[in-house]
Predict the structure.
Amino acid sequence: MEITMLYYLIPSLVMFCCGVYGFITRRNMIAILISIELMLNAVDLNFVVFNRFLFPGQMEGMFFTLFAIAIAAAETALAIAIIINLFRVAKDVDVKDLSKMKF
């Protein structure tokens, strides 16, 4: 049995849709950050799959995925630092309470 591109794209689509749903429905900033990371991982999976099936001898998709993972790690570290600072001031990490942070 040959594994086609569809076997990789369907789980990627499910991951991306779960990330969008979590981003829209959650109020906690940590849950929103996890949803964004889930969407980024789905996109990274697509980069690798399209590189593997469309250009099997080349590595551009793999390198772009590694670059995207590095950027996502930096974005996560920065977002967690911002969330920790917001928690120190507001004692809550819900998005609805961010209007209190206006000076």
